[in-house]
Fold this sequence. Notes:
This protein is α/β, with parallel strands linked by helices. The chain has two domains: 3-169, Rossmann fold, CATH 3.40.50.720; 202-369 and 455-499, Dihydrodipicolinate Reductase, domain 2 (2-Layer Sandwich), CATH 3.30.360.10. 34% of the residues lie in helices and 19% in strands. The protein is built from 14 helices and 18 strands. The chain has helices at residues 3-8, 26-41, 61-77, 90-97, 110-127, 144-153, 176-186, 205-215, 246-271, 280-292, 426-429, 439-447, 456-474, 492-499; strands at residues 16-21, 49-55, 100-104, 133-137, 164-168, 195-197, 229-237, 302-305, 307-308, 310-312, 315-317, 335-340, 352-357, 364-371, 391-397, 401-409, 417-425, 484-485. The longest helix has 26 residues, at 246-271. The chain starts with a helix and ends in a 15-residue tail after the last helix. It binds 6-O-phosphono-beta-D-glucopyranose. The site of 6-O-phosphono-beta-D-glucopyranose has 4 residues, from loops.
Amino acid sequence: MSDQSLRRGPQPAPACAMVIFGGSGDLTKRLVVPALYNLADQGLLPERFALVGADRLAMDSAGWQCQLHDFIETMISSGRSEFAAKSIRADVWQKLGHAMHYVEGDFLKDELYETLAQKLATLDESDQLGGNVLFYLAVPDRFFGPIVDRLGKHGLVREERGWQRVVIEKPFGHDLASAKALNAQILKSLKEEQIFRIDHFLGKETVQNIMAVRFANGLFEPIWNRDRIDHVQITVSEDIGIEHRGAFYEKTGALRDMVPNHLFQLVAMTAMEPPVSFSANAVRAKKAEVFGSARPVSPDCAVRGQYGAGSVSGNAVCAYQNEADVAAGSAVETFVALKLTIDNWRWAGVPFYLRTGKRLPRRYTEIAIRFKHAPFALFEETHGEAIEADWLVLEIQPDEAIRLHFNAKRPGPYLVLDDVSMNFKYSDWFNQAPAVGYETLLYDCFIGDGTLFQRADQIEAAWAVVQPLLDAWSTPAKTDFPNYAAGSEGPEAADELLRRDGRQWRPIRPASRD
Ligand code: BG6
């Protein structure tokens, strides 16, 4: 959602070249190029476009095209809902495939940048790309700084002609100090407006919809504050384990992998003040303020967990410690729950409880807003103890939905209250264009709209909030790991975290009437 697209409706993006560092990698295959295919399918890819894959693997352009064609064909023919057709569309592929070029080289060697400079100059002249280049760093994070240094050194991001932008994937740093150092390093070669720090959660339709729900309706905003809201619960539950990423996960853990980035994006959308416009700087300033006023989380307000063996959706699965590339006795967390306090005028006294974990009962993400109880004097004679407070639930995935749970009288001669719900499901109302989730984000990079990307100050403020936990959890403490069975709703200590505040988590398993 951008100011420009709101006003004009979608148009093909302007002419440019796109260079993907890590062109033969997994992210490029699974997400970036399929998203470009969908943009081409929707007529949103630039009409004059060149796509250059750069990587260490020896390959030529024809080989790269073939590899990606076959990969996307397999995704499409296996019936994946991210694509509109049942097989790859020749006219769409022709547009994309013909634009593809491959350059082989080492990210740390000058030769690659010399070759790229030549390649880009040739393409710019033949395809009239206006000097515009989007560099996408789909590489392990240790290469982010060195690649940007070399782009600077070889004059590839000087913006003397056209624009040059750099997309940086997650993780942006692994703590506050490293995020600051990386920002300082890349800001030597780039201006802040050239940097697009991506968080794919912001590509999810319902996440962008939070701003529309809050700010386009007179209904919600007046009650969106400490006078009416008791607390907020944000759950990002995953049924998968760590898949084949044991080595990565052992260095990362659930806190770094999910909280200061994905969960905090959901917090920011929920808690931010209304921006003066949807311009990138207006929105990002309001989001950064949320973390500027959030208190650093103290270790007593957080719980970590690690899954043991168990069963998910009826399948037996092993403990984290028995996954490939995981150390026996590992103290790395696969689950985090925490209480976040936002000390500002709107949210003082309204805790935000966050939890995320692997091997929970199902893939499910929601933001649940719990409203304060009405004064129940009128209902003292009815089933008072059963009267629920109202909930507004924004479901992010797998269904994109908004549900309002409230109290109503059960039919019959007695006054008995029951909680009922009004449900809005995106798919019931809209014909959604199939998407892998990166389309909006890539399109916004092409048109230079940074609204959905993170600014340096926002990233650093988010790391500052979790830094006390990173410090406390960095020394292999004596843990009781594993402390939750795969397929359960997390460790008992997470329930205790809310119980001591007189609250409880919403169930992750679907309620029978939802
Ligand atoms: C990634 C994390 O950034 O997000 C993964 O590294 C996680 O561990 C994934 O599984 C979740 O994203 P999504 O879109 O599948 O909910």
